Amino acid sequence: MEPAALRPGVLCCRVPWGLRKRRGNTSAPLSGTGVTITGVYVKTTRVRRGNRVYEYLSLVEAVRDGGRVRHDVVARLGEASALRATGELDRIVAALATHSERGWCEESGVDVEQARSAGAVAAAWAYWRRLGLDRHFATMAGGHEAPIADAVFAMVANRLCAPRSKRALPEWVGADVVMPPGFRTPAAHHYYRALDVVAEAKEATEAHLYATLTDLTNLDLRLVCYDLTSTYFEGATKPSTRFESRAFGYSRDHRGDRPQIVIGLLCTGDGIPIAHHVFAGNTADVATLPAVLDDLQHRFGVGAITMVADRGLISADNVKALSDKGFGHILATRLHRDADVAAVLAASTQPDATWAPCPRAGSAVCDITHGGRRWIVAMSAERLWRDTARTAELTARTSAELRALEARVGAGRLKDKAKIAAAAARIMAGSGVARLFDVEIGEGRFLHHYDEAALDYEEKLLAGRWVVTTSLTPEQASAAEVVVAYRRLLEVESSFRVLKDLIELRPVFHWTEDRVRAHVAVCVLAGVIEALMEADLRAAPVADPDLDDQVISPRRALRELGRIRRVSLSVGQRSIERDTRRSALQERILNALGVEAAASAPAPAG
User: Fold this and answer.
1) Please, what is the average pLDDT of the chain?
2) Pseudo-torsion of CA 550, 553, 556, 561, nearest 10°?
């Protein structure tokens, strides 16, 4: 007899191993017979009667007897359409499924309960534990029975993944994401209590992070970058005794009509935040540095370091303070209305000036000694093109507006001297090139013309160039090394952009001093994790799939990991959780960040 699978009109399908119980091990030969049972099958036999084809189902054993295979019928189940119509076939399948080692269910019996985001929070948790912040905040909470440490992590993870207000956090934690094992879900009021703990533990937290980062990243504090930003508040503008730091001042967000606070951020040369300070909104930039230097030296016990800072922090007192503490400095300079800078730029154009390439900064550098100080001039073709084009655009636009004002005055439509001056001031204030124009104002009279000396300075000396001054000797750092070190200040500016864009420092929904300071601290903690993620993604490296020759950013990486979902299914009385299949990109990101994938996650596709 030929195998049933080869005979016309006969179809076979294999039955799960759990059904093969009638004779024990059915793959073994029957003793003394030379006959082997190779498996149990459901056989479909088609029979044509007239114009109709009937399908009969049988349960059979496939028996190998010597070199031949035959099917022995174990049970005749009946005609398939009749079995389906009466529901008998479904009852047979259900009865057999109860004996299977695998779970079986009807598609209609599977309900998808929820699909929460799992990957991004898992990445945040991996860094949180790596930094020891879970243990740290458990200690800072002082044995509080409420889930304070869990609330702090939830706030930081939320800043990284999907920033929202503290009031909205219970919904996010409970319905949108998968929190780590052992996480105790906080109530709304726990988040506000956690903010109080964060505010109280600010200095202890920074000390803990400094010690941990020194071990994890071989933290190098020979170069420390310091910069400032501000963030403003909506709503009430009157002074408040509950929030004395909220005040009007110079706004980097161009919102001088709103009270603000000033935030100072200290970062390593690699852009990792190590400390932050919150100042009153009316604090001048130069006034922030002395307190920061004292804190850096006393709290972290640092030795000889070099402070890198922007031009707004330069003053004779600050330079002296840096020197008195034994700190080196690399400081940007004010490029306009500074006689020393003008002299240095002029010296760099002399025939005997020596320029050296600086590929890492995409520029050339010139070392100048002037007034007993060391200055470095940097120049790049890209900056020259940008400065020239920008100046031409701004001067053309401003000149057109000033000519229009001249025409109004000349036509007699504007005669009052004060009003003419106010109109000119409005044009000049927003022009960006007011320094390049001179104006003459009188009763019914207005004239403007270029300041030729200022224009020559702009075009012949300044275009394409910028200047830093440093206390480091050529033996301590070459001109190129000084310029590269200064450009690391861009990492601090990048950290501020992360705080304001990715982590969404603003809007601030708190109205007391401690709560606002705690909110800033939470955002900075998220910034630390983001900086470490960026370093790991670069080290791997993980390429951005959409940008040529670019490493994927933490923002894009977290967005990609956020697409890993944990799907909760209910099957009858059973509940099942499975993670969605990870893409190859998600797998590379997880590996780069050192995140252990969930055991239930399917293998990556492709």
Assistant:
1) 85
2) 110
